[in-house]
Amino acid sequence: MNQKGFVLGLINNQIGKVSVLTSLITKYPASSYVAGAYFERGRANLAIKEMKKGEADFNMVINSYPKSPYVPRAIVQLGLLYFDTGDNQGALTQLRK
User: What single-letter DSSP state applies at residue 68?
Assistant: First the structure.
């Protein structure tokens, strides 16, 4: 299911990607792939201009999976999101972590 979401992202079907990754997160909440699914769903949400949903997904990675290798990337994504939306202080806070 995670691979299907990745492929949908490659063909620029971000809404389909969000749907597949949401299913993975819901059906397999204890899976070792969930942190990556949240991260990728966050990226897809940003691509379809769902900024608050993307922010929530990146925060989920950071706060719920602190040992995940996706945490540094989620921090950077949040910093860029805050910068792009004019929240320079939020961007600095994230990027200093």
Answer: S
In a domain, 18, yes or no: yes
Q: Report residues of the chain scoring pLDDT below 70.
A: 1-11
DSSP state of 67: T
The answer to whether residue 65 is domain-embedded is yes
Largest CA distance in the chain: 37
The owner of tokens 């990607």 is 17
* Structural domain contains residue 81: no
What domain range includes position 35? 2-69
Q: How many domains does the chain divide into?
A: 1
Q: What percent of the chain has pLDDT over 90?
A: 73
Question: Is pTM beyond 0.85 here?
Answer: yes
List the alpha helices (DSSP H) in the chain: 2-10, 14-27, 34-47, 51-64, 71-84, 88-95
CATH number at residue 42: 1.25.40.10
In a 3-state reduction of DSSP, which class is residue 87?
A: coil
